[in-house]
Amino acid sequence: xxxxxxxxINGQWVAPAKTHDFPVIDPSTEEECAVISLGDQADTDAxxxxxxxxxPAWSQTSKEARAGLIERLLEIYNDRAEExxxxxxxxxxxxxxxxxxxxxGAGSWHINGFLKAFKDFSFERDFTSTExxxxxxxxxxxxxxxxxxxxxxxxxKTIPALATGCTMILKPSEIAPLSGLLxxxxxxxxxxxxGVFNLVNGDGTGVGSQLSSxxxxxxxxxxxxxxxxxAISKAAADTLKRVSLELGGKGANIIFEDAxxxxxxxxxxxxxxxxxxxxxxxxxxxxxxSRYDEAVEMAADVAKNTHVGPASEEGxxxxxxxxxxxxxxxxxxxxxxxxxxxxxxxGTGRPDGLNRGYYVKPTVFADVTNDMTIARxxxxxxxxxxxxxxxxxxxxxxxxxxxxxxxxxxxxEDDEKRRRVARRLxxxxxxxxxQGFAMGSPFGGYKQSGNGREGGVFGLDEFLEIKAVSGWAAx
Length: 475
What we know:
The chain is α/β, with parallel strands linked by helices. The protein has 15 helices and 20 strands. Helix 9 links the parallel strand 12 (about 250-255) and strand 13. The N and C termini lie far apart (about 60 Å).
C-alpha cells in the first residue's frame, strides 16, 4: 500500500483521528523506509466498536464458511509471499533468504496447521447422555504482536481467533508494522466481513494500553517482553478479561558427554539465527566438563565464521538487530559480560567493514556461572553463554535456575536419560537431539515465559469459552 498511515477498521482503510507520525527505520541502513501513524483513543474505540458490532453475526457463521475464508487467505498469502518477505526484511532486518524461507514460511506452516486441527474440531461435545458441553468464541480480542517473527506471531493469533468465531483488533509492533499492514490487505482481499478483523498501529503505552484496559475487549493475546506482559496483565485486571501471554526465555541447551559431536556447533548456529532475536533461542549452553573445551572452541569458530551483512544481501548470513534501542542494550550487556566471564569470540562494536546499521558481532562467553548477568537476562541478540557441569543433577538444577521457562534443549544418545531430564525441566517445551516440533505442537512457557499455548488445537482452545448445558436431550 502507498499510504502506510491509514488503519484498517470495519472493512475500510481510514485516516487516523489525529496525526501522530512515526518513522519506520530500516535497521540495515538506519534510514527511514516508511512513516506510519500511531493510533489515538478514538481510533482504538472505533476498531473495538467495529469488532463488537461484527461479533454476533461472525460468531454464528458456520465452521465451513470460516474455514473457506481462511483457505482463501492462505492462497493469497502464498501468492503474495514475495511482497511479505520483502516487507519483513526491510522492517526488521531479516536476511532476504531467511525472510522468504522461515519468516514467511512460518506463517503458511501455521495456517496449514490450524486448518488441519480445525477440520476435526468439534464445538459441541456430549458430556452425558443429556448434557452437552459447548465451546463458544470468547468475543472481541486484542492481538498485540512483536517485531522479531512478525508473521509467525500474527498468524498464531489471528487464524485461531478467526476460526473460532472471534472478532479482533490487531496491533502489530510499531517498529515493524509493514508486514501487519500487508496482512490486513490479504484479509481484505480474502473477503472477510467488515469488522471481523481490524488493525490499528500504535505503541505499547498508547494503543496497547488502551486495548488492554478497554471494557469492550474480552481477551488480550500478547507476545513480547515479560515486562510488557506484566503491564498488560495489570491493565486487564480491572475488567477481568482473559490474558494469554507468550513472553521471554533464557533457554538452556544441555550437552551431555555422549551427545552428537556436532551438538555444540549446531547449538551456536541456532543461538545466532535471526540475529539472536528469538525468545526460544538456546542462549545458555550447558556442557559436560569432558566436552567443555571442545564445545567452547566449536562455538567460537561458529561465531568467527558467521557472516553479518545487510538484509537485502542474498545468502545465509545474519542481519542487523531491529533497532538502535536493541543495539544499545545488547552492547551494554556484552560489555557487562566482558567483566564477568571469558570472551572467546565477538565483543562490543560492529563487525569489521560495517559502520552503519544495527549490526552486532556474534559473541561467545566461556566460563560463565549461572549467577552472572549474561546468564540471567534475556539479551535478545547473537550472544551465547557457555556453562560447564559435572552431573545430570547439576545440569538440571542450572537449567531450571531462571525466572523463565519457555524452551530447553537436551543432547544425549541415552534415550532414558533424555526422557528423564525432559520430565524434570521446568519449561513449556523441551527439544531433544535437534528434533523439531510437529505441526500444531503447543507453543508456550512456564513461569515468567507466560501462560497459554499457541498452535493447532491448543491455539484454538485459547479463544473459546466453555458452556455446560443440561437437559440437552430427554432422559
